[in-house]
Amino acid sequence: MKKILFAASEALPFIKTGGLADVVGSLPKYFNRSEFDVRVILPKYACMDEGLAGRLKQTADFTVSLGWRRQYAGILETEVDGIRYYLVDNEFYFAGDRPYGEIYQDVEKFAFFSRAVLDAFGEIGFWPDIIHCNDWQTGLIPVYLKTMYQQQEAYRKIRTVFSIHNIRFQGRWILNEIKDVTGLGADVFTPKGIETYGEANYLKGGIVYSDIVTTVSKSYAMEIMTPEGGEGLDGVLRYYSYKLFGILNGLDYREYNPAADRRIPYRYSRSNVGAVKPKNKRKLQEAMGLPQSPDTFLIGMVSRMTDQKGFDLVAYILDSFLAGENVQFAVLGTGEARYENMFRYFAEKYPDKLSANIGYSEDMAHLIYAGADAFLMPSLFEPCGLSQLISLRYGTVPVVRETGGLRDTIEPYNKYTQEGCGFSFANYNADEMAFVLRAAKALYESEQENWHNLMLRGMERDFSWESSIEAYESLYEDMCRVSG
Ligand code: ADP
Ligand code: GLC
To answer: Residues of the chain with pLDDT > 90: what percent?
Structure first.
């Protein structure tokens, strides 16, 4: 039995700010359980769902050394769908109403978390063969492991995988302060170690000190090795390209299943999508305060509101698009004020055409996936993207920009061969986006049978974990074989 410990800063059903939580909350469930014992370790945030917090049982407490400080760590345990979760408790670090705060606080918070993870093994009686770390918040785990913990035999055997879900966020901060906070040796704070551009960089730590680096699609693995996509780390990634793999995320098909989804008013599958989806569309229009017109092309968006997601393109065309087209937008999201306010403005200017729900709501998200005709995701960059996969599963046709995981998952519609499952455009250009949106709308309005078949082809695609899990399993197997 190979023992794997996932370390991350968020996972469903405990806490979610984005797709990372979907991935860490679902991937562990899909391993072959007779060969892999996969467990998960997370921070225990004060802002976690109280119902879940009530199910946790404290099983350990110990002291963690962090530079010159000594800090309390508790371990709370629970099981979800047969997966054991460990939550690291410290009311000072994990306080507040959000998991992430100011960067200068977060670097210390996650240095603490990283050491607590490593110090927990003896306490919880689980010594993993592989620690699978995710994003910058866990970047110091391989660094500590390969430096301060190497004297101890039990730690020398542990291997690490580091997964990059988004290279934009790196956990960078003043080098001398990180030296002081982490207590790591001077050799770590060099260009060969975790230093970049004069700062300490946690994500770079994950890349340099781990045995294997993965990212969440093949295209993104290539893109981050270029100056355009590498966010300053492309050189480092090219240097370490021998240990970099792109493995496409899967979607939790049990969680996102239109035939069994309790969050949507009318459930459906491929066989009755044509009859049932319009009923969800009517409910969505009602919930969003849009006119309940069955034949108006309804475009959904569910997204963090950041420039990553292509909102600058949307801002550029929205006024003229809404003025000139018979179309509806159902928007759900929260994030940067400039984008939130843009949608508020257009919702007031075109109340019959655009409705903006500024906030976070799982129920509303599922209703949009189930009720919209098309889903717009014109990302500037997209490591994998789960929203387009959810859309496909719910028979909502994705309109995307060809970048990262969007390019690897959305085969564009070909009107001659009647192949493909969505619409896409190549350049980060608003007119190109408007052009494909109009093409999608024209197909919806004038070629109903072709539109229906396009929708069915999307629903037939398989982006479940079943199709990606093998890649992780064989990666782990190879790593365990090499380490003997
Ligand atoms: P990212 O992780 O970059 O935000 P992904 O497409 O991988 O993008 O995952 C986003 C996830 O978060 C999806 O499950 C999406 O439905 C969900 N999501 C984003 N914004 C909201 C929101 N405002 N309310 C509910 N769910 C949201
Ligand atoms: C990040 C990326 C997104 C990806 C998710 C899960 O948040 O922005 O593209 O799907 O991580 O890997």
So the answer is: 96
